[in-house]
Amino acid sequence: MKNISSILLLLLLAGAAVVNAQQRIDTKSSGYVTSAKVFVDLLAKKDFKSAVGYYDATMKTALPEDKLGEAWASLIKQAGALKRQTGTRTEESGGYTVVFVTCEFEKTSLDIKVVFNQAKQIAGLFFVPANTSGEYSSPGYVKKGTFSERGVTVGPGEWALPGTLTVPKRPGSYPVVVLVQGSGPNDRDETIGPNKPFRDLAWGLASQGIAVLRYEKRTKHYASKIQQAKGQFTVKEETIDDVLAAVALMRETEGIDSKKIFVLGHSLGGMLIPRIGSRDNGIAGFIVLAGWGAAKPFEDAFIDQMTYIYSLEEKISDEEKKNFEEIKQVVTKIKNLKPSDASSPVNLLGAPASYWLDLKGYNPPEDAKKLQQPVLILQGERDYQVTMVDFQKWKDALASKRNVTFKSYPNLNHLFIEGNGKSTPSEYAQQGHVSADVIHDVAVWIKK
Hints:
Elements lengths: L15 E2 L14 H13 L3 H4 L13 H15 L2 E12 L2 E10 L3 E8 L5 E8 L17 E8 L6 E8 L5 E7 L16 H10 L4 E5 L2 H4 L1 H6 L6 H17 L4 E11 L1 H4 L1 H7 L5 E5 L10 H12 L6 H18 L11 E2 L2 E2 H7 L4 H5 L6 E6 L7 H11 L5 E6 L26 H12 L1
Parallel strand pairs: 8-9, 8-10, 10-11, 11-14, 14-15
Antiparallel strand pairs: 1-5, 2-3, 3-4, 4-5, 6-7, 7-9, 12-13
Helix pairs in contact: 10-11
């Protein structure tokens, strides 16, 4: 849940930190890949003193040597020892060069994502499940010949975002669904390891005659720019402003029925549906997938998720216990924040004080009572991040509203992918697809 992420993949594996290597790293022209591989070698050698020596000015205090060592130790605890690097790939994102170094650990494969800024410094480090299965393989419910895709730009000016509009091929005017990601720096497919749930949704719904818009999240496309920005940062800047821009774009897009624009939010995106709806009453309806239901304060989700993950282990190490206690201390600081702290530069669990203060007292199910549009609320019963307790909060708050529909799925996890038994973080590293039942239920509901 670091870097404003509510998904604790392999405990610290989805967390983000900004690091640099003191060892001379070649970042000229095509040297990014070599630089990233050398940097990973530094981590493998536990040469953390060298690894923290080249922080940029903004992040000098973000991850000191001891914290980097603890993060790497927690990673090794979950994934096992690093055996070897198996490959690399690169991409450009918002003026940054991103190198993914795929690594084989004893228990799993991970991508170590190294981000280089324009000053040729390492500006970001992420540990995420590796896409070891190669190219995306579409699920059986997708009918590829029935739709087409084209690039679009969501929003104007300095925060413009690249997106993809998926549209049925038959001539006509179609309803459209705008997809809103969960927390963290997600891409337009909401990629997690080999899984791309938003591409599943886009292609699955388009196969059913419904257009879909998905786009890069601001915290991914402009990650370093946001980290360096001064002043307040809340879910408005993280998510809501861009959703509203996406809806406005769809109203002006040929082939889209401007009266049938729906918004689908997953996880954090679902939690923010009431706020999105309060800003635009022209949206036709809303779909909430695993939306946090204010069963307790948002920051407590950290504790709940870590408690669950530790419960899966036979024994918790002293280092893990220490890390858990530190997280609890930070959560206590969040609870004690006052309005006067809003401009504080202090970073708490990857987000500034303004972010946490903005969410204090926010109760999505209660706020959803004000929505006049129809709402569809779906939940995976195996989800340990947003649980059936949250789902029940939505049901309790909205039970009297006749235009709200609820459904839960016994075998689905947080990504709405099917599985068996207790859901675990490592499950996200296994390839799967959004359930065909979810695609069907969303499509039928929209067509009503």
